[in-house]
Predict the structure.
Amino acid sequence: MKDIRNYSLLAHNTFGIDAKCSRFLEYESVEEARQIVSLLTEADQPLLILGGGSNLLLTGDYAGTVLHSAIMGIEVLDNKTLAAAEGDDALCNPDWVFLSCGSGEVFDDVVAYAVEHGYHGAENLSIIPGEVGASAVQNIGAYGVEAKDIIYKVEAVEIDTGRVVVFDNADCEYSYRQSKFKHDWKDKYLVTHVVYRLQKTFRPDLDYGNIRSALEAKHIAEPTAQQLRDVIIEIREAKLPDPKVLGNAGSFFMNPIVEKAKYEELAALYPGMPHYTIDESHEKIPAGWMIDQCGWKGKSLGRAGVHDKQALVIVNRGGATGEEIVKLCKTIQDDVKQKFGIEIHPEVNVK
């Protein structure tokens, strides 16, 4: 267990903001997580539960205590044992594979492990930054797949009591980039493990974005899981900057979901506007497209800027403060609202 005062968070946020927290607590097991919550006092407030920092923007030093998981490990659970424990014979399905992963594991390492061992369903989530615990909190997603599609259970320690609790997928109330951990359960639990349910049968999802065209360019008609993962990594790396080179938190804004009538109004004004149908009443419009239409792609406001290959990404061009990045965020929001009549909201957690 680590317990450090006046700790620099530079290595714990991909925006590259050199801010400090009053106290940093890190746990390597469920037992240490329970020990840590028993030590917390009012002086530790406000708490910040931190993963890899790939979805975080610090606007200054953090006055409270930061909690971080260093619980590692990837374990294949026995279906029959799990079925007996759950009282559900359906879990014996020979096509299903259950991976119990420590919340401190890098999420993409889990995807790589799954692909290597022939466990499928996570390929489209390749190279999303962050840790396993955050996948369950943020409901990360890409290329038509979300973490909720593969999460079976989430194990956690309740901060107020030190109890070990287990949540089913349905308990977490997942929706687009949302979960109960971000609202009703905010700062109430330390995630210790996430159990993912994958399949041995490979059923590739190729219909989102430019996956098919990227495969066709390689003359691949029926990709293997590794080929699909490789292509998705290439697509993401081509349009998303490496945070080690240019500080960023990936997609800064969530793609707004609008009523059908609003979409049709805009589609008449902007023929060919990209969109994704959510249901018969709602459409998702890419925020990056709207930001690009507002002329922000590749532009800067001081030391903060918009990436020249992907307008959804705000970057630290060197030495930018959190306040500078927030100023750019708000300016972009105002421009999108004025041009399209749509409010876009940060996916990034601003502290």
